[in-house]
Write a structure and sequence with these properties.
6 strands; four-stranded antiparallel beta sheet; 121 residues
Length: 121
């Protein structure tokens, strides 16, 4: 009584179910794409060229280990937009670590950076 012939065209219900499934898969893919892209390892940026200079009588060294002024480390933080800021002047961002170090020298004047304090643990 409910048997259908083998050559019958797909029913409306089958077509709608297939279309709905395709739409759900497309929406899920579009929603998850940014999350999956973010999980991929990011291309690392090439480090800034290693620099040493004397600025206002202070020795500035920028290398892979960080930024030092007169041999004392300057705490440098990288912002999400690629700019840099430090503990000496944490209200302003700078494009390069060298610009940051120069601004720190300007801010410090004749004072020296404190030696790195041990971390509390």
């Amino acid at each position: 009584m409910y048997a259908t012939p083998a050559s019958a065209a797909p029913s409306r219900r089958t077509i709608l179910r297939t279309a709905f499934t395709a739409a759900v898969l497309a929406g899920t893919t579009a929603a998850l794409a940014p999350v999956l892209r973010a999980r991929r390892p990011r291309q690392t940026l090439t480090p800034a060229p290693l620099t040493e200079e004397t600025y206002r009588g202070r020795h500035i060294a920028v290398d892979l280990a960080g930024v030092r002024i007169d041999g004392r480390p300057l705490h440098v933080m990288r912002r999400a937009d690629g700019s840099y800021l430090s503990g000496v002047n944490h209200f302003q961002s700078f494009d390069t670590p060298l610009e940051l170090a120069r601004a720190a020298v300007d801010e410090l004047g004749t004072n020296q950076l404190a030696l790195a304090a041990p971390h509390h643990g």
